[in-house]
Amino acid sequence: MDKKTILLKINDEEYSITTCPNRTLLEILRDDLSLTGAKESCGEGACGACTVLLDGLPMRSCLLLVTEAEGKEITTIEGLSGNGKLDPIQDAFIEYHAIQCGFCSPGMILTAYSLLKNNPDPDEEEIRHAISGNICRCTGYAKIVEAIQAISTKGR
Amino acid sequence: MEKYSLIGKSVKRIDVTSKATGEAIFSADIKLSRMLVGKILRSPYPHARIIRIDTSEAENISGVRAVVTASDTSGDKWGVFRYTQDQQFLPTDKVRYVGEEVAAVAAVDEDTAIKALKLIRVEYEELPAVFDVESARKPGAPLIHEQYPSNININIKIDVGDIEKGFQESYYVREDTFMAPEDSYFQGEPYAVAAHFDQSGNLEIWMPNAGPHLKAKPLSNVLKIPLNKVRVRKVRIGGAFGGRSEISPADVICALLAKKSQRPVKIVYTREENSIATRQAHSMVATIKTGVDKEGRVLARDITCYMDGGAYSSTGPIAVSVPFLCMEQAYRMDNVRYNGYRIFTNKPVRGMFRTHGRAFACGIDLQLDMIGKELGLDPVQMRLNNVRKTGEYTSTKSYITSCGMTETVLKTTEKAKWNEKWGKLPPYHGIGIGCNSVQTGFPMGIRGGSQAFIKFNEEGGISVITGIVDNGQGNDSMIVQIAAEELGLDLNNVQLITADTEVTPSDPGSYSMCETFIGGNAVRLAARDAKKKLLKIASEALKVNADRLDLRDKKIFVVDNPEQSISMSKVVRMALGRGESISGEGTYWPKVDSRREWVENPSGQLSETFSFGSVVAEVKVDPETGKVDVLEVTAAQDVGYALNPKVIEGQFEGGVAMGGQGGMLSEYVLWYNGRVLNPNQLDYMVPLATDMPKINNIIVETIDPNGPYGAKEAGMSVAMSAAQAYCSAVCNAIGVNIKEFPLTPDKILTAIEEKEKFKQNIK
Ligand code: FES
Ligand code: FES
C-alpha cells in the first residue's frame, strides 16, 4: 500500500507522519508516537480502553483509521494534565480509589472528562450510561461513579 | 495519640497517579530499540499428530528475523509439580487443543510476521478428540496423554470422620448435582511479553505476572540457562484474578525468538488469544449429598466433582482441591468425603480462578436453602447453624486462629433487612445469602515465604526491596504504608523496588491471597529490624535507653519526654560515618504444615489464617424475559484488620461484579468441538457500569493474632460468596432451584415455564 503523509494535531502539538493510510489511530498513537496511554483491550470497539477525544468527543481509536483523525483536535490521556497539574477528574479518580490495575483508566477518565464538559451535572444514571461503553474488570464501577459524582457541579 | 498514623487509613495509593496520566507502562507498552514483533502460529485442530513443520518459505521473506519450532527447544516437558510434567511449550509430537502454540515468527513489523506465519507449512494427522469429561472417561476414549489412563489427570481424595454413620444419624438427606461451564478471567490487559538477551546471555523479560519468581525458575529450567541470568522485570499489570502465576508458552517462545534473532522481541496477544491461549477457569459438575439433623446441622457430606482441565495439568492438583477447601473452611463438616477429579479434554488449559468452582460453592449454599425449606428453617438460620468459628479445626486439620464468619452473616442480613424481607417479598422478588472463606497462602515449597530489605539514604528516606507483586489490587501501596508506618515516615519518603528477580528476594507472588499476610509481615519485620538499629544509635546519642525511644515524623524521641529527640537523618549520617549497618532485613515464613501435599497428604495446616465472608443479594426477575435486575448487594468480610479501608471496599465491589453479577448471571464460555465461540469482548458478557447494583460494604475486623496489624486478606471471600448469594436470590425469586449455572435468561424462563406446567398438572 502506498504511504501517505498525514498531519495530526494531538494535545496541541502538530505531528506529520508518513504511513500506510490503513492503520488505525490507535496504532499510530501507540507504535509511532509512543503515546501509550491509550490501551488496546479488545481491538473491536467494545471496551473503550483505546478512547481518545476527537474535537472533545470520546472516540474508540481502535476503530478509527488515522486518516479520519486528520484536521481534528485529538486529546489523549497524556494531554489531560499539564504544567505539573492533573485535571480535576484525574485527581478525583485518585482520591476516590477509582483506579485499581489502571488498564481501563485512561479511556475511562477521558470518557468521564467529556461527559462533564457536556453535562457538568449528571445524575448517577447518566454517569453509568456515559461510561457503559468503558469496561472495567477490577472495580465494579462503584468508586468510578463516586469519583465522577464528586466533581460534578452538584458534588462540588 | 492515635495508634497508627498511616495504617487503617484510606490513604491514596502510591501507584495510581501514573495510571491516571497514562505514564504507567504495561508490557505491551514496552519499546526497546530494534525491537521485533513476535507472532504465534496456533493449531487449527483439537487433537492431531504433528508430522512435519516446514518453515523454509517463511524464513525467506524479507523482514523475518527468526522462526522457532519445537526443534529450537530441548523437548523437555514441564509441569508445576514433579508429577504433572506434561507440557512442552512448543509440542514435538502432537497438538492437544485448538489454539495450541506450534511455531512462531519474529519480524520487523506485524504485517510481515503475519505473512510469514501463513507460509509455515505444518502437516498434521488428525486424531479423534474429546470435549467433555464424560466422554473423556469412557472406555476407549482417545488418550490425550499416554501416562494418564482414562484421561484422569488428578484425583484428590479426602475422607474425614465417618460419613456412613453421619448419614445414618441424619434426620434428612438429599443429593443434588450442580453444573457450570468454564468462565474466563477477561483481564483488562491482554497478555503481552517482551524479551531480550544481552551479549552475556542474560535474559531480560517483562510480562503480566502474579509472581516473578514463579516465572523465572521455570524459564531457567526450560531455556536451560542459570537462574541468575533470568531477570523477570517489574511492569504494571492489568489484572490477574488467579491467572498469570504460571509460566506461559508465550514467555518461552518470546525468549526463544529473542535469542535466535539476537534482538528484543515483543509478543502482544489479541483479546481472542488471551481468552483461548492463557489459562482460564474450569467447568465443573458437582454432586453433593448432604445429611442433616433436625436443626439443619450438617452431619455428613459426600461430594464428587468432575472438572474439565483441558489439555494439560497446569495447577491441576491445587485447582481440584481449592473449591473443597474453601467450603470446609466456611462450614463445619466433621464427616465428609470428597472425590475431586480433573479430567483431560482437547480444550485449552484451565487454571486457578478468583471465583473458582462456582458449581460446587453455589451448590452447597443452594442445597442448604433447599434443606432449610424441608426443615422449616430460613437460610440465615441454616448458615448460622453450620458456619465455622474461631478455635476450630477444618476437616483437613487446619486450625482457625480468627474467624468472623458469624459476624459477617449477622451484619449483612441486618443491613439488608433480611427479616423484613425473607418470605415476604412480592412474586419474582427474591433474597439470598452466600458464605465463603479463602486461604492466605498455602504450602509452596521453597517459595512459601517472603523476604524484604530496607535501606536508608542520608536524608533518612528509604528504599523497600521486596518480591511482592501488585496485579492492580494495591499491594505496592500496602507495602509503602507498612514501611512508612513502622519507620515514622511519610509515604513519599519511601521508594519501592518490587517484583524484579534480579534485585528482589524470594516471594510467593500475588497468588493465593498471601501478599498481605506473608509479604506484609516480611516488610514489617524488615522495618522493625532497621528501627532497632536506628534506636540503638540514637540511644547512644541521646544517652537514653533504647527501649524508651520511638520513631515518628522522621524523629527519634524519648517516649516520656518527646522534646528530647534527634532527627532520623542525623542518626543515619552517624551510622554512615561509623560504617555501621542500619539496613533492615525481614523474613516471614507462614506456619503451615510443610508435609501437607495436595494429592498424597491433604491434611495438616494449609494456611496460617483464613478470611471469611458473606454476601446478601436482593433481586427482581422479569418473568417475561428472564432478565434479572439486582436491586442491592450487601457484602461483608472478615479481613482481619483493614489496612486501607477504601482499597478493601474496591476489592469487595470488584468481587461482586466478577463473582456475582458476571459469574452468576452472564459469564460462560461457549464451545463448538473444542473451539471457543465467544473469545472476544462483544460476545463474552462481563458486567458494565449500567448492570451493577448498589453495593453496601461491611468490613469486619477480628484482628488476626499473626497478621500484620491483625490483617489477613482483602476481598476474596466476598468475590466467591457473591456468586452463591446471587444464585440463592434468583432461585428464591422464581421459586425454582436451578442447578445449572450461570443463571442466564433462557434457563430462568425454562424453569418458570416448567413450574407453571407442573402447577397446572396438579390442578
Ligand atoms: S480497544 Fe478499542 S474499544 Fe476496545
Ligand atoms: S482498574 Fe483494572 S480494568 Fe479498570
In N-to-C order, the SSE pattern of chain A is EEHEEEHHHH
Overall 3D form of chain B:
globular
The chain pair with the largest interface is: A-B, 54 and 57 residues
Q: Write out the distinct hetero groups bound to the structure.
A: FE2/S2 (inorganic) cluster
Q: How many beta strands in the DSSP annotation of chain B?
A: 28
Percentage of residues assigned to helices of chain B: 25-40%
End-to-end gap of chain B: 72 Å
Number of extended strands of chain A: 5
Strand content of chain A: 15-25%
Structure characterization notes:
The complex is a heterodimer of chains A (156) and B (763). With 156 residues, chain A is α+β, with helices and mostly antiparallel strands. A five-stranded mixed β-sheet of chain A has the order 2-1-5-3-4, with helices on one face. The N and C termini of chain A lie far apart (52 Å). Chain A has five helices and five strands. In chain A, a hairpin with a 2-residue loop joins strand 3 and strand 4. The longest helix of chain A has 14 residues. Chain B is an alpha+beta fold and 763 residues long. In chain B, strands 3-5-1-12-9-10-11 form a seven-stranded mixed β-sheet, sandwiched between helices. Chain B starts with 15 loop residues before the first helix and ends with a helix. Chains A and B meet through helix 2, helix 3, helix 4 and helix 5 of A and helix 1 and helix 17 of B. The complex binds FE2/S2 (inorganic) cluster (2 copies).
List the helices and strands and how they pair.
The complex is a heterodimer of chains A (156) and B (763).
Chain A: E1 4-10, E2 13-19, H1 25-32, E3 51-54, E4 57-60, E5 73-75, H2 88-95, H3 105-118, H4 124-130, H5 142-151
Parallel strand pairs in A: 1-5
Antiparallel strand pairs in A: 1-2, 3-4, 3-5
Chain B: H1 16-21, E1 36-42, E2 48-54, H2 56-60, E3 64-68, E4 94-95, E5 101-107, H3 110-118, E6 121-126, H4 133-137, E7 152-160, H5 163-169, E8 172-180, E9 192-197, E10 203-206, H6 212-223, E11 230-232, H7 249-261, E12 265-268, H8 271-276, E13 283-292, E14 298-310, H9 316-330, E15 336-344, H10 358-375, H11 379-384, H12 405-415, H13 418-421, E16 429-439, E17 450-456, E18 462-466, H14 475-487, E19 494-498, H15 515-542, E20 549-552, E21 555-558, E22 561-567, H16 568-578, E23 584-588, E24 610-621, E25 628-638, H17 645-665, E26 671-672, E27 675-676, E28 694-700, H18 716-734, H19 745-762
Parallel strand pairs in B: 1-12, 10-11, 14-15, 18-19, 25-28
Antiparallel strand pairs in B: 1-5, 2-4, 2-6, 3-5, 7-15, 8-13, 9-10, 9-12, 13-14, 16-24, 17-18, 17-23, 20-21, 21-22, 24-25, 26-27
The complex binds FE2/S2 (inorganic) cluster (2 copies).
One FE2/S2 (inorganic) cluster sits between chains A (99-105, 136-139) and B (188, 239, 472).
